[in-house]
Amino acid sequence: MRVERLWPPLVAFVVMVGLWEGIVALFSIEAFLLPAPSAIWTSFTQNSATIWAYGMRTLTEALGGLVGGTVLGVLVAAAVARWTTLRLGAMPFAAAVNAMPIVATAPIFNQLFGSTNPVSKMAVVALMVFFPVMANTARGLNEIDDSELELMRAMAASPFSVLRRLRIPSALPYFFSAMKVAVPLSLIGAIVAEYFGGPQNVLGQYITNRAQLFQFPDAWAAILVSAIMGITLYLLVLVVERVLMPWHVSTRTSDG
Amino acid sequence: MDFIVDMQGLSKTFAGRSSTVHALQDISLQIEPGEFVSLIGPSGCGKSTLLRLIGDLLPPSGGGLSVNGKEAHQARIDGDYGIAFQKATLLEWRTVRRNIELPLELAGVPEAERRSRANDLLQMVGLTEFSDHHPWQLSGGMQQRVAIARALGQRPPLLLMDEPFGALDEMTRESMQNELMGIWRETGTTVVFVTHSIPEAVFLSTRVIVMSARPGRITHQIAIDLPQPRDLAVRESPRFFELLTDVREALRGRTGTR
Q1: How far is B53 from chain A (nearest CA, A)?
Q2: Residue of B56, B90, B106 to mutate, interface with A, max A Cβ within 10 Å
Q3: Hey, where are the domains in chain B?
Q4: How sure is the predictor about B119, in pLDDT bands with cuts at 50, 70 and 90?
Q5: Model's pTM, two decimal places?
Q6: In chain A, which residues have their Cβ closer than 8 Å to the Cβ of B105?
Q7: Rounded to whole angstroms, what are the CA distances from B203 to B126, B178, B197?
């Protein structure tokens, strides 16, 4: 990315934080209503060892669920793309499951796996991530141009060749747009699941506890950690996308 | 008399919701090796369907069909034809070279041989310096040249083309026609070419097959006796314009040409 394109968001960020700080100071807004960025920063630096250690546990849950849900989603997508009957039968059902607020199942998974077991949080995350990955990947595997299929047939390509040389590369862009949705979902899932109970040394519990004690700068500092982790994961997806599909529109550069 | 394509009373019907559509009826056509045959007709005359029957991309509903002396299915499996569509249908994640190598790869040709064959083909279509480009970096005409090079990969005795220049502008189209003429002479491959452009059919072909719609059938066959090689002089000759008129009249359903 060009340096000129980095300036506008950077300036906007500085102006926003400055305004926030200024308004809090000017109107002497109480810290329990809205803490100043400087107060959040102080808490962030002072408690950094604790909140990063907690953050890593939450991240482990999110990643565990993300990987599990993604693997499952891709496998089901492959099956559903292969067998039309399965697709017709399963897709409405899957859409219905997706429409329900999956985090609501967290207490159930806490009981099932034991609330201190990270698997209880991973299960919630996996369930949340599963649908967008499955639906998008299935669409990518299926939405192949008729002429491309004709071409493969004309060249007497085996079904496996069609999968490897046509369907999978065609599905990659769909898969990556699903991952861009799934990554933030995985952190949301893990933190919200933590609200429903479990070990104390995780971000969700830390946020709840500090908020109950009116230590809002601490709570915000923990939220900042989760935001940093979310952004990092998202950027990681972008990097992998660029490496795996340098040809694609989304990664094309104007001078390419 | 060994025909590369031999159709005897070929028909194709599509079952609709309430009625069956007779896309092709009683098509008998024999094509000799080395011919350049164009199929021309109004939309709905089944010319593209006919091409797909030859390529075993669609099954016929009745009649006999042999391609390169075999059943159409076997000819497809054996890689006896190459095909190019109106859309270049290049795989966007592959470079020009890897797109051209695709049919060779599918046929299990060893890598070294694939590379040298691709080099020859790149040179033939004048795209050597673009071998590492991706399709989106090429113009429409260049993409279509890649598609033609790909179709020629296995040196097929038969080349099937479905309006390959239909989406190109007139200037590009004419230069592509000249290029295709060169490739046809150089390779000696038989071409079956679907088009709805009368000048294109007349300029390229040794024989023009005129079809009519509902049901799709052959109404006229016009031998194109223009001299080879075909060049600008041929395009501007009186005989060229006479033949244009012949094909146009045939398309209008008038008899009396040959």
Answers
A1: 11
A2: B106
A3: 85-155
A4: very high
A5: 0.83
A6: 165
A7: 22, 9, 10
